[in-house]
Design brief:
This is Sulfotransferase family protein. It is built from 13 helices and seven strands. The chain has 242 residues and is α/β, with parallel strands linked by helices. It has one domain: Rossmann fold (3-Layer(aba) Sandwich). The strands form two sheets. A five-stranded mixed beta sheet has the order 3-1-2-4-7. A two-stranded antiparallel sheet has the order 5-6.
Length: 242
């Protein structure tokens, strides 16, 4: 998650959508007052990339120390599961919590940006990122559906869309260019993004989305039942995947 004050922009980061590369690129435009959340342990290489390029590092995301004793138990439980102190802003913080913690004034004046990807393609990408040894695709979908559905909390609050600009993973170069036109202060964002490849290399280039879904009976219907928002809004279909 990133907050820029000038231009006023909030990036809400979903899972498995090239969000880390976009965050690294966007952090190059951040000033001292802006919010940039840190990556987890599995993304230390990405944090190093950001640092080596001289882009703004994580900042302004922590709770003041004097607020820590008064945080709700849920915050401490989540932090304990990650073996860290609670953070006011986290990498994949849901939109509802971002809005609540930033406040109505900042939320309302900021352009809310996120990235969307075909749920069929994203499921295959997540499979090669999170599968257990020997686990087939159908078993993975059954086990990890909650993770796959988690992106909805970055797109909607109370069932209602909260994103102003969706960058489509499949057309992200053109969509970033359109964002630069809308916000000229971000000129060059697309060029920086195109030079990055965070968290790449886990999915074999020969992996076929349609073949994997064909190997798991009932999986297509399960996706259509659980990802209606993306499918209906953006017209994603399995037949359009490779």
């Amino acid at each position: 998650m990133i907050l820029l004050h000038e231009p006023a922009l909030i990036f809400l980061k979903p899972h498995k959508v090239a969000g880390t590369s976009f965050e690294i690129a966007l952090s190059s435009f951040a000033g001292p007052r802006d919010i940039i959340t840190p990556y987890g342990k599995v993304s230390r290489a990405d944090e190093l990339t950001r640092r080596e390029r001289g882009y703004t590092s994580p900042q302004n995301y922590a709770y003041p120390w004097y607020r820590l004793p008064f945080l709700p138990r849920s915050e401490w439980q989540f932090a304990y599961s990650r073996r860290q102190l609670p953070k006011r802003f986290r990498n994949h913080l849901p939109a509802a919590q971002v809005k609540q913690r930033l406040g109505e004034e900042i939320w309302n004046r900021s352009l809310k940006v996120s990235i969307v990807r075909s749920p069929f393609d994203r499921a295959v990408s997540a499979y090669f990122w999170r599968r257990k040894p020997g686990e087939d695709f159908g078993a993975y979908l059954d086990r990890d559906l909650r993770y796959l559905r988690a992106n909805d909390r970055h797109y909607r609050i109370g069932g209602e869309n909260c994103i102003d600009v969706y960058l489509r993973y499949e057309n992200i170069g053109d969509d970033i260019a359109a964002l630069e036109t809308r916000l000229p202060e971000l000129a060059g964002l697309g060029t920086i993004f195109a030079s990055l490849s965070a968290k790449s290399g886990h999915r074999p280039k020969t992996a076929s989305v349609r073949e994997l879904f064909a190997s798991a009976p009932g999986s297509v219907q399960m996706m259509e039942d659980n990802f209606q928002f993306e499918i209906e809004r953006f017209g994603y279909r399995l037949k359009d995947c490779h």
